[in-house]
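re the bet — no i am not wrong, look at it urself. input seq straight from the record:
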Amino acid sequence: MTDPNRTNQTPLSRRTFLQRLGGFAATLLLSRCATADRAEPETATDTVASSSTAAASPTPVLTPTRTPSPAPTLASNTIGTGRGVHPGRVVWAHDPLVTRWSGRGGPWWTEEALDPGGVAEMLSQSLRALTEVDDDAAAWNQLFAYSNSTRGRGDSGYSPGQKIAIKLNLNVVSTRAYNGLGAFSAPPLVAALVSQLVQNAGVPASAITLYDATRVIPEAITERCEVPEFEGLRFVDWAGGAGREQYRRDPNALVTWSGDVQGNPTYLPTCVTEADYLINLASLRGHTLAGITLCGKNHFGTICADLDGAPTRMAPQGADIHGTVAAHDFGGTDPAWTWSQRPMGSYNAIVDLMAHPHLGGKTLLHMLDGFYVAQDQNSSVKPDCRWESSPFNGHWTSSLFLSQDEVAIDSVGLDFIRNEPSLLRLHNVMPPNSTCENYLHEAALIGDPPSGITYDSDASGLTVTSLGVHDHWDGADTRRYGRNLGASEGIELVAVR
């Protein structure tokens, strides 16, 4: 698709852009390595690449890994249609210098353990690589213009008065004063994202809402956002109070599940339905039921439903959709929390959320926080969460992923997870016969999915042909997807550091 904002810029060739980006990244890395408060990883085994190596690289390159891939490839190799200014593009930023936690002492999310300046630089570089411009403001303008053009709203950028909702992943957080080691949206990344919107996209803080409708926003995030620049920033969560607003259901926003779901009526919160745009800030990690919990499943924390006659923080259970995402047999003595594996080519409720006009339909940007990756949705970040595969090599994952294509970014996240030895050994997360990618097949081919289901989550009667492109890399040693190999369709993985 032609970039709707290109006429307002001086055109850059792809070669020129990549050369500029490579030089920009090298300059940042060199300056940061010279800064006194930037510590190297604690041991030699924690070091992925020296600053001199990073600085010498003229362009973003795909980083090889040496772990053999057990993941099956699709017979057709690529399914679906890429989305975005550069269709199917997924940007992967990796910098081992930003994660400085020893695994002991205070939590992983403090400024001492996760460098705010480094995180902000990674986000800036990723935005530029995603849109192929060398200015953050121009990058945001392209993201807004593309979103508007695909929704029949012209080709303009952000307009004053428009609202943005940012979905966090706070699955482990149940109290405001949470001080545990569970993985949740990294506070430095949340602050960097809000700062980008305010400073470079021209969005007033009062038009931005951070939310999770089924959990509590911790002080680790709210206190990080207590700066004059963010005055008016809204926080919406399950309980409200202490500067947070309690979520409210929108009675006019009923989610119509396309499959045979027998749960209670499911609604969306008003902070989502009133927003003009949404940013999906998800986490990279495994899941003991679904196999993976990435951007698609992050909206299990958006929906509102009753359980046993009352509103519940376990809204997916109240909606009765857990069984639709079971990637393997799950459960035990409690029949209410026991499900049989869903086969490939079956209905998956995640696809309804990805297709909903208030969720996937208005999402400006999909993000995966991979700085400290927990093994699953409930576990803590601990020393054995360091990844073994290259380029991590026994260090923290220290990664950030961005895309405008939800299917593509989750496909990349799946390949990373399914090729990490420390996760493959956890058969409660990724057994050999996992059907965790079923929802990606259904979403990529939503117009005619393998299940034969008609996905129509808002009962509008409107469907699309594809929600994005699904692809697997050609091998864990090369990490090349369809567009990396010169195909006209598929994922394009672009790595920056």
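see?? Residues 1-76 have pLDDT under 50 and may be disordered. told u. also The chain has one domain: 6-496. so pay up
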